[in-house]
Design goal:
This protein has an eight-stranded mixed β-sheet with strand order 3-2-1-4-5-6-7-8, with helices on both faces. It contains eight helices and eight strands; from the N terminus they run βαβαβαβαβααβααββ. It has a single domain, classed as Rossmann fold, CATH 3.40.50. It has 245 residues and is α/β, with parallel strands linked by helices. It is 42% helix and 14% strand. The protein starts with 7 loop residues before the first strand and ends with a strand. The structure holds NADP nicotinamide-adenine-dinucleotide phosphate. NADP nicotinamide-adenine-dinucleotide phosphate binds next to α1.
Length: 245
């Protein structure tokens, strides 16, 4: 298939972890992948690895915490491709860990929200015009089970005692809530927006302490990036299972 006929995807934070695997797996599915990376050298390295595996990709500098970088990236994608079919909002940070939720400092709250929520919203809004030019735009917001209010309130749930990164948890709740807002705006359009939990995955974010291998951790993002026109919008899932908000 020629490059022009292939879907074009941007994966933020695509240089390592779940983002890199998402980029690789999308490329394996015939998608032309743009690896968004805060540091372009790391984006270039990821692209080299994808190419060495026999697939196609390109790198793009994108710091989701920097408005100028976001605007420049959106302009560059417009110039290079004229449209965007898939946006995977994967970049994220955990922030400081605390013993009690009330101990998280305000600078820490702001840092986490700047990247996990405001960055994601700004990237999405900047790219929406290009997603509207796609015949079947897809937005995947990489959230977390830790964003589930229902599970946080449920004694005995797997996350009930996981209150040591409150800013992270609440930022992911906000990503879910934003997904619902945007899904409403996009109903009737060709764009679908969904939020996902990748699983508890062995990446640098949790110092390799997860339960899932990284390739498996990318599967939900890839699945939702490639859903058909009859697929969901405004859902919160993990590997096809609905997660309580
Ligand atoms: N691992 C898990 O168990 C787990 C569970 C639930 C949800 N998630 C979510 O999955 C996503 C990926 O996490 P991961 O586990 O793969 O973490 P990771 O290995 O720490 O990777 C995080 C990625 O985000 C990028 N990033 C951070 N700040 C950025 C910024 N300002 N601009 C652009 N990119 C930025 C990093 O880039 P640099 O290399 O430049 O730092 C890196 O590529 C995150 O949204 C995370 O919250 C992970």
């Amino acid at each position: 298939m020629s490059k022009d006929n292939r879907k074009i995807a941007l994966v933020t934070g695509g240089n390592r972890g779940i983002g890199y695997q998402t980029a690789l797996q999308l490329a394996q599915q015939g998608v032309h992948v743009i690896v968004g990376a805060r540091r372009i050298e790391q984006g270039n390295e990821a692209v080299q690895q994808i190419k060495q595996a026999g697939f196609d990709a390109e790198a793009l500098q994108l710091d989701v915490g920097d408005s100028a970088s976001i605007q420049a990236a959106a302009a560059e994608i417009g110039k290079r491709h004229g449209r965007l079919d898939i946006l995977v909002n994967n970049a994220g940070i955990l922030g400081d860990q605390v013993e009690k939720p009330s101990q998280q400092t305000l600078p820490s709250w702001r840092q986490v929200f700047d990247i996990n929520l405001f960055g994601l919203v700004e990237v999405t809004n900047a790219l929406l015009p290009l997603l509207h030019k796609s015949g079947a735009g897809r937005i995947v917001n990489v959230s977390s089970l830790l964003g589930s209010i229902a599970q946080h309130l449920e004694p005995g749930s797997s996350i009930y005692d996981m209150k040591f990164v409150p800013a992270y948890n609440v930022s992911k709740t906000a990503v879910n809530a934003w997904t619902a807002q945007l899904a409403y705006e996009l109903k009737g359009s060709k764009i679908k927006v969904n939020t996902i939990h990748p699983g508890y995955v062995k990446t640098e974010m949790n110092q390799g302490g997860g339960e899932m291998e990284v390739p498996d951790g990318a599967r939900t993002s890839v699945q939702m990036a490639l859903i058909g026109d009859d697929g969901a919008s405004g859902s919160f899932t993990h590997l096809g299972e609905t997660i309580p908000w």
